């Protein structure tokens, strides 16, 4: 896994979009990205994502910026823009992987809300559709990252967590990392 | 692909949860489920999902019910409950596929919001975590369905659509299905 997969969220209406933007950030974190760049009016979402990172571990960075277009245009690496109008993910994922994580080339993944300016389509090396159907930018991002990393992101270990969820057939088990080492140290 | 993968959404607060519940339904539709069951106070989300199905095609059914617990308990088939406390998706997906789509056994996929009652953990044949990290029920559902169907859901063809999005390297192209036959009939 590379150190440099960054998810950029374009567009945010405070209040109305708080949960979607938070979910974009938490999905980026959980599924292997290194950083999320949010619009600077999404401070509430940034706070929630940082709080989760403090509790459940990192490294994962959250950045607020007001120059999403320039940032994308000037990205030194590969740009993938997720859009239902783009090429089919199953058709481009191998090339996209070769141009990014497989060659240590930094990847910027642009996730729009509604009404993404044409600039982003033009700045993108790949416009990618996770289906050409309208659904959810969060769902699209999730499938995209799982395919980009070929599932390896699910094996990630987290640093600096103050709690760890242990997978259970039924019920909930949350331990602190110290207990985990004592319990599962022999694995 | 089986005819019988149903996504059940537990819990909905009108207003606050409208977009998340809509996205659960649209993700279920786009990624290969046959039907979504929503709480009966989620009429607004149901309407949006039906409207998308009318325009972009089906078949896909939306049902409103008020008996989510009994419906899950009495499901005649396999029940998978998505939860960050569950077993790792990468560990259980092969068994789960064998017990559902691969053996024509109907599958109910339970997607909670916050505070899912313990009944659902007990009624589930599989409690499944798409990571054991907090992120998004929409993201979890998306990765789950893509893995369940092993990507075949992306090849689905839609019936009764009044518009079709054609994948593009750059830009947007939407045609009506009649035009599509004339343009791409030779493929």
Structural commentary:
The structure is a homodimer of 187-residue chains. Chain A has 187 residues and is an alpha/beta fold. The first copy, chain A, folds into 2 domains: 5-156, 3-Layer(aba) Sandwich (Alpha/beta knot), CATH 3.40.1280.10; 158-187, no CATH class. The first copy, chain A, has 7 helices and 8 strands, in the order E-H-E-H-E-H-E-H-E-H-E-H-E-E-H. Chain A has helices spanning 18-30, 43-56, 68-73, 89-98, 118-123, 137-148, 177-184; strands at 5-10, 35-39, 61-65, 78-88, 107-112, 126-129, 164-165, 174-175. In chain A, strands 3-2-1-5-4-6 form a 6-stranded parallel beta sheet. A two-stranded antiparallel sheet of chain A has the order 7-8. In chain A, helix 1 (18-30) links the parallel strand 1 (5-10) and strand 2. In chain A, helix 1 runs parallel beside helix 6. Chain A is globular and about 50 Å long. The relative contact order of chain A is 0.19. At the A-B interface, helix 1, strand 4, helix 4, helix 5 and helix 6 of A face helix 1, strand 4, helix 4, helix 5 and helix 6 of B.
Keywords:
Alpha/beta knot; 6-stranded parallel β-sheet; two-stranded antiparallel sheet; 37% helix; homodimer; alpha/beta; 187 residues; 22% strand; 2 domains
């Amino acid at each position: 896994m590379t150190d440099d997969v960054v998810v950029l969220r374009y567009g945010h209406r405070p209040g109305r979009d708080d949960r979607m933007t938070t979910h974009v950030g938490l999905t980026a974190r959980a599924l292997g990205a290194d950083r999320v760049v949010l619009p600077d009016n999404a401070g509430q979402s940034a706070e929630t994502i940082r709080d989760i990172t403090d509790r459940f571990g990192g490294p994962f960075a959250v950045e607020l910026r007001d120059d999403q277009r320039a940032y994308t245009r000037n990205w030194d690496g590969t740009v993938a823009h997720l859009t239902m109008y783009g090429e089919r993910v199953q058709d481009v994922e191998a090339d996209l992987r070769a141009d990014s994580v497989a060659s240590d080339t930094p990847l910027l993944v642009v996730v729009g809300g509604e009404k993404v300016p044409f600039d982003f389509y033009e700045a993108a090396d790949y416009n990618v559709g996770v289906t050409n159907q309208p659904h959810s930018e969060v769902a699209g991002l999730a499938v995209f990252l799982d395919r980009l990393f070929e599932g390896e992101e699910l094996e990630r270990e987290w640093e600096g967590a103050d709690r760890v969820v242990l997978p259970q057939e039924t019920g909930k088990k949350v331990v602190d990392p110290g207990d985990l080492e004592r319990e599962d140290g022999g694995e």
